[in-house]
């Protein structure tokens, strides 16, 4: 087994493990965000009840509750933004994995001698190439979405 093939195989495994670790990290963070959402909802419900039920409370207390409610809304909005960023990252990881798999299949077909390829092999090679281009275009769209979000936030 040539050294370059072992190196490529090792690098492919490392890249796959990196994608897997990123996916796990993203999944954990999404779960944390879900828990935080529930906590914020409960706090918001309590504050709304306080604001509606307490007619005889001082204006300072109502202002404080209103400020707390606005803070919760801001925090929830920032978590929603983070969640959407993470969902884009998940899609990007899926597309990376898909691209890697298609790339491996395509390399297999391309490494064959042209004289040994059957017409079915050539058709399969073209289909894989078309799928690979489609995946690359989808990744490009995700990158544009992220860039637009970044620019709109600025």
Structure in words:
The chain is mainly α and 154 residues long. The chain has one domain (3-153). Helices cover 90% and strands 0% of the residues. It is built from three helices and no strands. The chain starts with a helix and ends with a helix. Keywords: Coiled coil, Membrane, Monooxygenase, Oxidoreductase. Residues 23-50 form a coiled coil. Residues 13-154 form the BMERB domain.
Brief synopsis:
The chain has about 150 residues and is mostly helical.
Order of helices and strands: HHH
Our count of helices gives 3
How many domains comprise the coordinates?
A: 1
State the helicity in percent bands: over 70%
The computed structural class is mainly alpha
Strand composition percent: under 5%
The separation of the N and C termini measures 52 Å
Number of strands: 0
Rg of Cα set: 25 Å
Biggest sheet: strands, sense, closure? none
Unreliable runs: none
Shape: elongated
Mean pLDDT: 91
What are the defining features of this structure?
154 residues; mainly alpha; 3 helices; 0% strand; elongated
Q: Can you lay out the helices and strands and say which pair or pack?
A:
Elements: H1 3-53, H2 59-111, H3 119-153
Protein name: MICA1 monooxygenase
Keywords: Coiled coil, Membrane, Monooxygenase, Oxidoreductase
Subcellular location: Membrane
């Amino acid at each position: 087994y040539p050294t370059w093939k072992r190196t490529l195989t090792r690098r492919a495994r490392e890249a796959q493990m990196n994608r897997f670790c990123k996916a796990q990290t993203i999944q954990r963070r999404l779960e944390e965000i879900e828990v935080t959402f529930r906590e914020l909802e409960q706090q918001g419900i309590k504050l709304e009840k306080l604001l509606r039920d307490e007619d005889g409370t001082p204006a300072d207390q109502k202002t404080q509750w209103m400020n707390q409610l606005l803070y919760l809304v801001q925090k929830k909005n920032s978590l929603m933004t983070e969640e959407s960023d993470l969902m884009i990252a998940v899609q990007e990881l899926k597309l990376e994995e898909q691209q890697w798999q298609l790339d491996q299949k395509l390399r297999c077909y391309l490494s064959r001698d042209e004289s040994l390829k059957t017409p079915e092999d050539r058709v399969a090679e073209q289909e894989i190439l078309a799928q690979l281009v489609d995946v690359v275009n989808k990744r490009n769209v995700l990158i544009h979405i992220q860039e637009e979000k970044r620019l709109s936030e600025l």
